[in-house]
Amino acid sequence: MRIRELAKAAGVNVETVRYYQRRGLIDTPPKPLHGYRCYAPETLQRLRFIRQAQQFGFTLKEIEALLAISDAPCGEVRAQIEAKLEKVRARMAALQRLEAALVQQLDHCRQQSNQARCPLIEALLHTDEFSAN
Single Gene Ontology BP term (predicted)? Predict the structure, then answer.
């Protein structure tokens, strides 16, 4: 299939296919002398793999590592997934701390609603007094 057909079948645009080729995530088929590149069905499978991995939150660099070990024993793949899960949990913890800090500042704003300047603005102006961590 041609690049446009491949992109449509994978749910990406043509530039995404070209970008993945430049990054080495998918192979670039040879171009015939007088014609268009013809992509193998395996390329479509690989594009779908990349999209699905992105849905799980993997970056292209992480996906590249997964593709490199795609034929490896499950233990190697599991290690990559465990590392990603650790990153996700750390990000979630950071977001929970941020949420708590915002809730605290919002409560403070509600208590001080008659002030000329919002306490949150004051806290942000004096960054040593305000921490989202």
Answer: response to mercury ion
121 and 92 together in one domain: yes
Measure the CA–CA gap between 88 and 109, rounded to whole angstroms. 31
Give the Cβ contact number of residue 122 at 10 Å.
14
Q: In this structure, are residues 65 and 80 in contact, taking their beta carbons and an 8 Å threshold?
A: yes
What is the dihedral sign for C-alpha 41, 47, 51, 54?
Answer: positive
- Structure tokens given for 79: 């290690």
Do 67 and 77 lie in one domain? The reply is: no
Is 127 found in the same domain as 89? Answer: yes
Cβ proximity of 77 and 66 under 8 Å = yes
pLDDT in tens, 39-72: 999 999 999 999 999 999 999 999 999 999 888 8
Q: Model's pTM, two decimal places?
A: 0.74
Residue 85 to residue 113: CA distance in whole angstroms: 41
| Distance (Å, whole) CA 22 – CA 24 | 5
Within 10 angstroms of residue 20's Cβ, the number of other Cβ atoms is 22
- Non-local (6+) Cβ contacts of 101 within 8 A are 130, 131, 132, 133
